Automatic annotation (TrEMBL):
The lineage of its organism: Eukaryota, Metazoa, Chordata, Craniata, Vertebrata. It comes from Panthera leo. Keywords: Lyase. This is AU RNA binding methylglutaconyl-CoA hydratase. Belongs to the enoyl-CoA hydratase/isomerase family. PANTHER family: ENOYL-COA HYDRATASE-RELATED, METHYLGLUTACONYL-COA HYDRATASE, MITOCHONDRIAL. One of its GO terms (molecular function) is enoyl-CoA hydratase activity. The gene is AUH.
Length: 310
């Protein structure tokens, strides 16, 4: 008993050190210059440090993308920057009609390149992933909200891509499932990890073991998607809903949106106490921003805030 009591302080210290490392890793993902809250390691971040934390690395390879109505078209991926009232929304359209949007090395390479470019673009507020091929849906490690619009088939890799998004919406006629076991393989694009986190372990096992395909209503019932809609004549009901959601996100503070996403994602991977420490660290980064001051001023003046992501 005495030995156990003597060992307890050391064990507690190790636990606290482990939590501190987890929170430090979380802050590191935000960029150089970020610090933990004073209760953990040191002083909070000042305005100058904040600005340095979000700025892209000088001379980095991530190119800035201009805003225009022009559609950048590749063979398999289309990146579209919306304008006017939709400014800040980017649509990633997958366009492999001849292969029913199945993944190829070229498509994965282009998706990776697009994601890298979007990560450093502060003008981007929300990203919608959709299919450019009618009836088929086939991101991701992005700091801004991502929405998967499923208007057709999302099987195997297509559903895994949707699972990597923050929010999923689908038409009632959509079909989705992880069907790899039919081919004597398993989901290899994150499906075995993200599906249990989305709908629970037991049900995820049932769906993967059976290779079952769900329609939109069934997917909504098990919590796989957030919204289900009757398909329209144009075949883009899910995309239209995703666009409505993205418009709801646009007025919010862009820095707060990024930090909130990080806090939620990182917090879900740890225990509650560590998650609360991560939340505290993330909250601290919003205090000294210009956007926060603009939000307070706009509230006082009874007008809409004009956030700049600073």
């Amino acid at each position: 008993m005495a030995a156990a009591a003597a060992a307890a302080p050391g064990a507690l210290g190790a636990l606290q050190a482990g939590r501190a490392r987890l929170v430090a890793a979380c802050c590191a993902r935000l960029g150089p210059g970020w610090r933990l809250p004073g209760s953990l390691t040191g002083p909070r971040v000042g305005p100058a440090m904040w600005a340095r934390g979000w700025a892209p690395v000088a001379g980095g390879s991530a190119a800035r993308r201009g805003y225009s109505s022009e559609v950048k078209t590749e063979d398999e991926l289309r990146v579209r920057y919306l304008e006017e009232e939709n400014r800040g929304i980017v649509v990633l359209g997958i366009n492999r009609a001849y292969a029913k949007n199945s993944f190829s090395k070229n498509l994965v390479k282009m998706l990776s390149k697009a994601v890298d470019a979007l990560k450093s673009d502060k003008k981007v507020r929300t990203i919608i992933v959709r299919s450019e091929v009618p009836g088929i849906f086939c991101a991701a490690n992005l700091p801004v909200p991502t929405i998967a619009a499923i208007d057709g088939l999302a099987l195997g890799g297509g559903l895994e891509l949707a699972l990597a998004c923050d929010i999923r919406v689908a038409a009632s006629s959509a079909k989705m499932g992880l069907v790899e076991t039919k081919l004597a393989i398993i989901p290899g694009g994150g499906g075995t990890q993200r599906l249990p986190r989305a709908i629970g372990i037991s049900l995820a096992k049932e769906l993967i073991f059976s290779a079952r395909v769900l329609d939109g209503q069934e997917a909504k019932a098990v919590g796989l998607i957030s919204h289900v809609l009757e398909q329209n004549q144009e075949g883009d009901a899910a995309y239209r809903k995703a666009l409505d959601l993205a418009r709801e996100f646009l007025p919010q503070g862009p820095v707060a949106m990024r930090v909130a996403k990080l806090a939620i994602n990182q917090g879900m991977e740890v225990d509650l106490v560590t998650g609360l420490a991560i939340e505290e660290a993330c909250y601290a980064q919003t205090i000294s921003t210009k956007d926060r001051l603009e939000g307070l001023l706009a509230f006082k003046e009874k007008r809409s805030p004009r956030y700049k992501g600073e």
